[in-house]
Amino acid sequence: MKTKNNFSAKGKALPLLIILLSGMVLFSCKKNNNAPPTPKNISFSGMLSGQAEIPSVNTSATGSVTATYNPATKMLSYTFTWSNLSGAPIAMHFHDGAAGTNGAVVVPVSGFPATASGSVSGTSSPLNDTLVNDLMAGKFYGNIHTQSNPGGEIRAQMSKQ
Predict the structure, then answer these.
(1) CATH for 131
(2) What residues make up the domain containing 122?
(3) Which of 51, 77, 84, 107 has the highest CB neighbour number within 10 Å of its CB?
């Protein structure tokens, strides 16, 4: 009488194959915990001066503009700081324009103090894709206007940091 040998190499092949395939299925179904990366904020800055205005302005006023663009919200958070203006600011904003050119106002700034020296911070509305592209390409500038210089007393071209 012959007995069946379930422990032969031939008899082990099918159970071994089932175990290997089960392991492959389990590992291939592993949960992917890699969420898409959160876009990083992008920083910009510029030094405000009368020489940067088009045409240039003879003034002792100086200042700086810092800004952070949030790609998730498409908003620009900013701080303008200035000193020694010829008078109180009457307007302040960001323009869409390359260095050496004047451009349209695209981000108005409000709530600034009516003092020859001061600072103001704020956040824009979401920027459209054209404005985002121009900001990234260095075609954005901030400026401050005064009664003596209604076209702008000091200007800063925004540079990516």
Answers:
(1) 2.60.40.200
(2) 42-160
(3) 107
- The Cα diameter of the chain in Å comes to 117
pLDDT tens, position by position, 84-94? 999 999 999 99
Mean pLDDT throughout 17-28?
A: 63
Residue 119 lies inside a defined structural domain of this protein: yes
Answer whether residue 58 is part of any domain. Answer: yes
pTM listed for this prediction: 0.78
Residue position matching structure tokens 């020859």: 116
Beta bridge partners of 151: none
